[in-house]
Specification:
Chain B: Belongs to the HMG-CoA lyase family. Chain B: It catalyses: (3S)-3-hydroxy-3-methylglutaryl-CoA = acetoacetate + acetyl-CoA. Chain B: Pathway: Metabolic intermediate metabolism; (S)-3-hydroxy-3-methylglutaryl-CoA degradation; acetoacetate from (S)-3-hydroxy-3-methylglutaryl-CoA: step 1/1. Chain B: One of its GO terms (cellular component) is cytosol. By secondary structure, chain A is an alpha/beta fold. Chain A has one domain (about 15-305): Aldolase class I (TIM Barrel, Alpha-Beta Barrel), CATH 3.20.20. Chain A is built from 13 helices and nine strands. Chain A has helices spanning about 1-5, 25-30, 35-50, 70-80, 95-100, 115-125, 125-145, 165-180, 195-205, 225-235, 260-270, 280-295, 300-305; strands spanning about 15, 55, 60, 90, 105-115, 145-155, 185-190, 215-220, 240. A nine-stranded parallel β-sheet of chain A has the order 2-1-9-8-7-6-5-4-3. The termini of chain A are far apart. With about 350 residues, chain B is an alpha/beta fold. Chain B has a single domain, classed as Aldolase class I (TIM Barrel, Alpha-Beta Barrel). Chain B has helices at about 5-10, 15-20, 35, 55-60, 70-80, 105-110, 125-135, 145-155, 160-175, 195-210, 225-235, 255-265, 295-300, 310-325, 330-335, and strands at about 50, 85, 120, 140-145, 180-185, 215-220, 245-250, 270-275. Chain B has an eight-stranded parallel β-sheet with strand order 2-1-8-7-6-5-4-3. The chains are: A alpha/beta (about 300), B alpha/beta (about 350). At the A-B interface, helix 6, helix 9, helix 10, helix 11 and helix 13 of A face helix 1, helix 2, helix 11, helix 12 and helix 13 of B.
């Protein structure tokens, strides 16, 4: 346990994802357009006020695939840009990248996967083809001085391929890092991972990419997210993705939960004495706001415990 | 997450996939494959004993009074999952805990499977005698590391409670009946707030020296985090052998599994949990309570730790009780697996 006190970072960058409201869940798909543009903007502003330093605002993907993100340009233009806060947006291809830049984006994200089948089903191309698309974006981003964050999905398991080898994750991560991504977020997309598997995966990845360039993105589908995140922190990772109110379900397990709730993450980090810069009370207010707007219960246990229903 | 809608339809063998892997599988022995063995974290115990408290701690905190036959059925089902300890009921006055009014019928009504132990709570000598008369062969006593909590919960000071427990534990030992000790509020108290590790150690030591074979340290309101868990355990472990300790984490703030992982990393190998995460929290309306046995097993399986428990069968027992009391499970594993 001595390793824990040495490895724990002093500072943590949290990322609250509004993209979780996208049609990545059957429920959200049925609730298309229920979240209006002003509501999205207000949520992001509230999250900025809560002290988060990175807030993923929207996705410049075709509305044909993700109708919930059709208002991407308005959202990006409409939000208040707090000093010291970055607002990355997802850009799956060059077209989306260009639209994002035109709308004022200063940081973009690209979404890779450690599984060939997942890549095929998710973005309809092979992993090799996806890297070519990303390369185009990264080159354009470099000339425009725009930072690019890379995501690797399925790092602890794939809904189609099952087990994913740590070596494969390391390979994909290394690729994205060498192509120019400043940070790689390793995602347990279907939440099947447990701390031992997280450790093995990170051990392999850290041999290729420095820990400071890594983040973890744990899903709570099987209730393992916080334990997995704790393991990642013990291994020296200091960037954690999470979603206010634990927004977003899991499209691979109907009725299941998705993202780790930012409130529950912050609660743990504060208890560990790690500085996040986040005001939990304001965060709870933001979560409460979006849950009311979506007419759904929060997935955050801290919120459930704090709001006397 | 990218474009996903069409992906759901193609996920034909997802459930099959899960069954094939340790993520959701039968008990680890026999299912371990060499590749998976390497993911066992070093320093973790090889075997973890799960103490199932759903029928007692879980149901006690459920608002709906569960019929006796349902309770018996639940316990019988749990007995067939591989669990080796199932806390059955509480021999407390029905005036205080109406849910446990049928303690004698439940104790007499369950089928006692070989290799499974069925402890019951006995807050005082009267309860102890009733428990023994009803066939109990193991008992538990419930202390607290907080003076205010002790007063509000059992209407006496810690010192007075220790006096009562001593009577019970002595009688139990006299009859060769093992006694387990609980320490509530080990990581925080709803009235006093912060609880010092020293206080927890003091109370634990009292219970251990009076003859309790195991002390279950409870984060009663779930406020603990890995740091406070570590500090508390470090203090207690100075006075009580590791083999005599257990953790009882509530998931009120979503911290339970992270706290349990911390305890495991420190060598603790007995963990309390409740099927379906039964039981809310009387101190935070609407909040959750016990950590779900299913989610705990899922983590332990993934860590390559042996529990002897069949996750599927626990999930079935959980499904049964949730349907019987008309509530949604608090287990994320169950939510992900049963298309509700």
């Amino acid at each position: 346990m001595a390793a824990m006190t040495k490895a724990l970072p002093r500072r943590l960058v949290g990322l609250a994802s509004l993209r979780a409201v996208s049609a990545s869940s059957p429920e959200a798909a049925a609730l298309q357009n229920i979240v209006s543009t002003p509501v999205k903007i207000k949520l992001i502003d509230m999250l900025s006020e809560a002290g988060l330093s990175v807030i993923e605002a929207t996705s410049f993907v075709s509305p044909k695939w993700v109708p919930q993100m059709a208002d991407h340009a308005e959202v990006l233009k409409g939000i208040q840009k707090f000093p010291g806060v970055t607002y990355p947006v997802l850009t799956p291809n060059l077209k989306g990248f260009e639209a994002a830049v035109a709308a004022g984006a200063k940081e973009v994200s690209i979404f890779g996967a450690a599984s060939e089948l997942f890549t095929k089903k998710n973005i309809n191309c092979s992993m090799e083809e996806s890297f070519q698309r990303f390369d185009a974006i990264l080159k354009a981003a470099q000339s425009a001085n725009i930072s690019v964050r890379g995501y690797v999905s399925c790092v602890l398991g794939c809904p189609y391929e099952g087990k994913i080898s740590p070596a494969k994750v390391a390979e994909v991560t290394k690729k994205l890092y060498s192509m120019g991504c400043y940070e790689i977020s390793l995602g347990d997309t279907i939440g099947v991972g447990t701390p031992g598997i997280m450790k093995d995966m990170l051990s392999a990845v850290m041999q290729e990419v420095p820990p400071a360039a890594l983040a973890v993105h744990c899903h709570d589908t099987y209730g393992q997210a916080l334990a997995n995140t704790l393991m990642a922190l013990q291994m020296g990772v200091s960037v954690v993705d999470s979603s206010v109110a634990g927004l977003g379900g899991c499209p691979y397990a109907q009725g299941a939960s998705g993202n780790l709730a930012t409130e529950d993450l912050v609660y743990m980090l504060e208890g560990l004495g790690i500085h996040t810069g986040v005001n939990l009370q304001k965060l709870l207010e933001a979560g409460n706001f979006i849950c009311q707007a979506l007419n759904r219960k929060t997935s955050s246990k801290v919120a459930q415990a704090t709001c006397k229903l | 997450m990218g474009n996903v809608p069409s992906a759901v339809k193609h996920c034909l063998s997802y459930q099959q996939l899960l069954r094939e892997h340790l993520w959701i599988g039968d008990s680890v022995a026999g299912a371990l494959d060499p590749a998976q063995e390497t993911s066992q974290l070093s320093g973790l115990p090889e075997f973890v004993k799960i103490v199932e408290v759903g029928p007692r701690d879980g149901l006690q905190n459920e608002k709906v009074i569960v019929p006796t036959d349902i309770k018996i059925e639940l316990i019988n089902r749990l007995s067939q999952t591989g669990l080796s300890v199932i806390e059955v009921t509480s021999f407390v006055s029905s005036r205080w805990v109406p849910q446990m009014a049928d303690h004698t019928e439940v104790m007499k009504g369950i089928r006692q499977y070989p290799g499974v132990r069925y402890p019951v709570l006995t807050p005082n000598l009267q309860g102890f005698h009733r428990a023994v008369a009803a066939g109990a062969t193991e008992i538990s006593v419930f202390g607290a590391a907080s003076e205010s909590f002790s007063k509000k919960n059992i209407n006496c000071s810690i010192e007075e409670s220790m006096g009562k427990f001593e009577e019970v534990v002595k009688s139990a030992r006299h009859m060769n009946i093992p006694a387990r000790g609980y320490v509530s509020c080990a990581l925080g108290c709803p009235y006093e707030g912060i609880i010092t590790p020293q206080k927890v150690t003091e109370v634990s030591k009292r219970l251990y020296s009076m003859g309790c074979y195991e002390i279950s340290l409870g984060d009663t309101i779930g406020v603990g985090t890995p740091g406070s868990m570590k500090r508390m355990l470090e203090s207690v472990m100075k006075e009580i052998p590791l083999g005599a300790l257990a953790v009882h984490c509530h998931d009120t703030y979503g911290q339970a599994l992270a706290n349990i992982l911390t305890a495991l990393q420190m060598g603790i190998n007995v963990v309390d949990s409740a099927v379906s995460g039964l039981g809310g929290c009387p101190y935070a309306k609407g909040a959750s309570g016990n950590v779900a046995t299913e989610d705990l097993i899922y983590m332990l399986n993934g860590l390559g730790l042996n529990t002897g428990v069949n996750l599927y069968k626990v999930m079935e027992a959980g499904d049964f009780i949730c349907k019987a009391v008309n509530k949604t499970t608090n287990s994320k594993v169950a939510q992900a697996s049963f298309r509700a």
